[in-house]
Queue: 2 jobs
Job 1
Amino acid sequence: NAGVMQNPRHLVRRRGQEARLRCSPMKGHSHVYWYRQLPEEGLKFMVYLQKENIIDESGMPKERFSAEFPKEGPSILRIQQVVRGDSAAYFCASSIKTGGLGYNEQFFGPGTRLTVL
Amino acid sequence: GEDVEQSLFLSVREGDSSVINCTYTDSSSTYLYWYKQEPGAGLQLLTYIFSNMDMKQDQRLTVLLNKKDKHLSLRIADTQTGDSAIYFCAENNDMRFGAGTRLTVKP
């Protein structure tokens, strides 16, 4: 059973280009979370998705960032017109069910390290 | 929204105990987690505690939970250089993570 997969592992973009980050959750997991980790800073929640639905995007910048988790295929985090401040590690995690009363371990992917030149 | 807070840095000497603290605000959380992130890697679950417990021990790790004060701590006994990492606490209701505590172990 493969873990959470993210690709690419490293992505270099020039200012103004688009970045697409992919996340394939663990088999059987229908909940996906995206986080951003800036250099020497902590982990910041961005967005929480279920298949075809955005559940919570309170951590997502209002402009240039979007996320989707289609019925088929991986979850995509898309950053348009990247700027140097977008350089960070972006982590995806998946879980088998949502929060609430139950045990809900998130399984993390290895991250995509985005560098904006 | 609900919040999870941690101090950002902790430095200890090899062989000493490390205590990493965390406070959270969501009183409806039923599980609280500690994750570990080694350099260049993703997060991995280290341990967790159910909210009706005060303490959980797992080899060198001891988790203490004060539900009244919404305070969680992770104690690492006999800290080794291999324990150097970033440690994150998280709660299960909104799955919010703290910013992470960077533990540095000096020989």
Job 2
Amino acid sequence: SQQGEEDPQALSIQEGENATMNCSYKTSINNLQWYRQNSGRGLVHLILIRSNEREKHSGRLRVTLDTSKKSSSLLITASRAADTASYFCATGSLTGGGNKLTFGTGTQLKVEL
Amino acid sequence: EAQVTQNPRYLITVTGKKLTVTCSQNMNHEYMSWYRQDPGLGLRQIYYSMNVEVTDKGDVPEGYKVSRKEKRNFPLILESPSPNQTSLYFCASTGSGRANEQFFGPGTRLTVL
């Protein structure tokens, strides 16, 4: 079952601009994570935010979580061409042995020079 | 180097011919999982394993089997592949001390003719 839905599905920006991606989900979560995937390759974990946190930073990444609205956003500041990839949100729940992640359909980000 | 490996990376086969995709991790992780990724559907969990000899169905288990005889290995078995199993498959693992952050393998692109 699909839990996270990312918005927009695709985003094209110029290098140096900020990129914002949103994720909405439906059920209660333990945490929410963002992953990056370069074309046809494995996913790489970017950042995890727990359900009792509202904002988290890691380098040029900023993640917010609003559990009342069941939504999260990922902001990439000062984007670079190397940031071109697909970005997925994944919600972590306490079912499935406490490690179940349910992924959204992703946002394709293209950063142009 | 900490990693998850999968083999083969690419496979073209015919309907009904049994195949196994291997997955191995060297991080001593308890939790391992298989996903398939299809356009527009994101990643969907096929099976997961909480530890040796403990496996359970994910969201799309039909047509697949798994086993977990050793902690490091988690093979995915397609007893009688069908064309609708053509997909990109990912294995992932998680340690018990790293709540939900999953480490992904490079992926196996399977085509069933």
